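Morning!

This is the sequence you dropped in the shared folder:
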Amino acid sequence: MNSIVVADAGPLIALAKIEYLNIIHNMYGDILIPTAVFKELAIETNKPGVAILKTAISDGWLKVVNPEFSLKEKSLLQLLLDKGETEAILLAELVNCRFLLIDERKGRAVAKKRGIPIVGICGLLLLAKEKGFISKVMPPLNNLLNIGYRISPKLISQVLDRAQE
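The structure's back. Tokens below.
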């Protein structure tokens, strides 16, 4: 394992919308995303969070990479997953990442089955609290819920228990 973090679009968009995107950069440095994830970020639009994502890309720490993936492997994964998740998983394997930041259930299951370490947005917030980057996980969790990010009540309860909040 090395220090490279690869990310899927969903958590990046959500973190940008609640203005917590810099946390992942502060904790892990550069974050890699494949081309398909970059397209899903829709930075040519005026959607909430886009300005923060544009800044991360222009500052050079949210890095778009375009490696050559096996067409066969990519096609097989795309039977189950969207293009962004497929390329994020393949990139995570290619670079032997520290972890893949991904929340989508199917994508997490596939990544886990392939031996890729995964972290979701809730796990990232817990790590941020444990490392002193944030003082509480509840405010960003509330912000995520307020923007419509789907987090089960059970997971929220587990996160708050672990965070001792």
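Headline: The chain has ten helices and five strands.

More detail when I'm at my desk.
O.
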